[in-house]
Amino acid sequence: MDTVNADPFAKFKAAQREGWSSFLPVEVISTIPAAKLVNFAQVTPGQKVLDVACGTGVVAVTAARRGAKVSGLDLTPVLVERARHNAGVAAVDVDFTEGDVERLPYPDASFDLVLSQFGHIFAPRPTVALGEMLRVLKVGGRIAFSTWPPEHFTGRMFTFIADYAPPPPPGLDAPAPPALWGDPAIVRERLGAKVTQLTFKRGTLIAPALSVAHFRVAQEKTIGPLTKIVASLENDPAKLAQLRADFEAMAGDVYDDNAIQMPFLMTRATKT
User: Fold this and answer.
1) Of the residues 10, 89, 149, 261, which has the maximum number of CB atoms within 10 A of its CB?
2) Residue 242 contacts residue 234 (beta carbons within 8 Å)
3) CA–CA separation, 66 and 251 (whole Å)
4) 12-16, 64-68, 90-94, 191-195: lowest mean pLDDT where?
5) CA end-to-end span of the chain, whole Å?
6) 132: β partners
7) Which helix (H) or strand (E) holds 68?
C-alpha cells in the first residue's frame, strides 16, 4: 500500500509543507525560547536528541552546541536547508532530515530526548504524532516541548485563523487545533500513563514590532496558515479588511513598548 496516498491528511500536509516555507525570518525571535526549552529539557553532552518539526534548527543547533548528538526533522525542505546552513555556521554536526512527525523515520527507542518547539502542534492527529514521538524515545528518556496556550495571543491567533479556514472535505475530520497543546489539562490527558514526572513551566517570547500594523504585515508574510488565508481573500477585499482589522485589534491587546508579548508553555515528562 502507498502509505503517503493512504494518509487522509496528505493534502493538508502538502499545503503545510509549502505554506511554512516562508517561516525563515521568524528564527530570529525563536532563538531565545529555543535556549529556554533546551535548558528546561536538561540536555547534556552525549545524549541522543531528536528535534521534531525543527524548522530552521534553532533548538537542534542549541542542543548540539551543548554537546548532544542531535537529529532534526521537518516537513518543509526550505526549512531543512536553512537548518543545515545554521548548523554549518555554528560548526556543529546535526543530522537533518525532511519528514513527517506522524511517520518518523527512526527505529524504536532511538533517542534519550525528543524535543519540539512550536512544531509538532501542527500535526493534524495529536495521538499519532505523540505516539511516534514516544515510540522513538527510550524508556526513561524525556520528552519536552513548547506550545501556545489557547488563552494567550498566539493560541488565540491560530484559533482566529482556523475560523477563516474552509471546512474539511466531506468524511474527513478537521485537523486538531494547535492551541490545545498549550492547555496543561489536555497535555496531561494526552500523555496519560505513558509518562511520569510531568512538569510545566511558562515563558514569554518577545516579538519586536514598530507598530501593530508592522507586526500584522510580518505575520502575514511568515506564518503559513495566515499567509494562505490572506491569499484566499484577495478577491474579497471587504472580508480581507475585516480579517486585518480583527487581527490588529487582537494583537493590540498584547502590544506595548514596540513589542508583542507571546506567552508560551513548556512541558517535560519521562517515558515510562
Assistant:
1) 149
2) no
3) 35
4) 12-16
5) 33
6) none
7) none
pTM for the whole structure:
0.94
Cell readout for 246 is 480583527
Instruction: Write the DSSP assignment of 124-147 as a string of letters.
Output: S-HHHHHHHHHHTEEEEEEEEEEE
Handedness of CA 75, 81, 87, 89 (dihedral sign): negative
Contact between residue 94 and residue 65 where contact means Cβ atoms under 8 Å apart: no
Amino acid in position 162: A
Q: How far is the CA of 4 from the CAs of 25, 126, 132, in angstroms?
A: 30, 18, 16
SS3 of 241, please?
helix
Type of residue numbered 129: A
Amino acid identity, residue 164? Y
For the chain, the average pLDDT equals 95
Instruction: Name the fold adopted by 3-203+263-271.
Output: Rossmann fold (3.40.50)
| Residue with the three cell numbers 547534556 | 44
Amino acid in position 84 = R
Residue 217 · residue 207 · CB < 8 Å: no
